[in-house]
# Entry
Amino acid sequence: MGLEIPFGEPIARFAASVAHALGRGRIAILTYHRVLAEPDPLLPEEPDARTFDWQVGVLARHFHPMTVSQAMERLAAGNLPARTVCITFDDGYADNALVALPILQRWKVPATFFVATGFLNGGRMFNDTIIETVRRIPGETLEASWLGVPSLPLRGPVERRKAFETVIDALKYRSPTERMEMADRLAASLPRELPADLMMTSDQVRSLAAAGMAVGGHTRRHPILAKIDQDAAREEIESGRQDLQTILGREVDVFAYPNGRPMRDYLPEHVAMVKDAGFRYAVSTSWGSVRKEADPYQLPRLAPLGQGPREFALRTARGYF
# Structure
């Protein structure tokens, strides 16, 4: 049943007992984006399959994993198990289905996947266009003053990572159309095409649901809602939900705000739009655990942290408080 974890068990059990004693009536929602088949020096924050396997193993052995909707229903009913945890994925990367799903199935752990539908079936988010361009661009310097950034060194993975972070930060809060056009202009300098299989296909989204996973909305094109007009924001929220319901043939009741920081990335009016669109719950990227009095349309989440099973269990337990 997955990777055996012979080390760290006493500490993991201790962390779980602490969470059980002090974290009753709370939910820890963990935020993931990708699970890589192999480690990537440009993306050290993204777990590889081996790391994700032992992380899910810790959660399966010592916590009570549920989907977001399941956990919220139990919380409202007053019968939420102690140590309830929810695994969530944002954006809709293909490795969610290819790498993460088999691991989740092996451990019999459910998860919730928030999918930006405009990138399904061969699309690519603007940030990934930048990352994959900087990964491949020849030479030791990125010259792109037209992006509003200085000359950026590219001598090795650390500098290349810093370079794409700088460019992404420069474009993130522009309109979806403008940032994609500028990312594509940068990519046009490469002699070959970028990968077109980073995001899921519609069939892969269906495979998640068929495996018992939950699928939630994440808009269509992943805009920063606070940076677009209200009509466009409403259309993004509603059309993303409708796309998924057409793909799945079922209601979609949970949502994740792109980027997710309240009062910077989304505003109170967007919370109202999510509710009006028919969603029952929505998650942000505010840090913390969910309590019964939490706004169901602004649920906080936690980053999955820890270099090994012991630290991961302790940090997850700490997140309840």
Notes: Confidence is low (pLDDT under 50) at residues 1-7. The domain at 9-121+213-318 is CATH 3.20.20.370 (TIM Barrel). The chain has two domains: 9-121+213-318, 126-187. The CA atoms of residues 119 and 199 lie 6 Å apart.
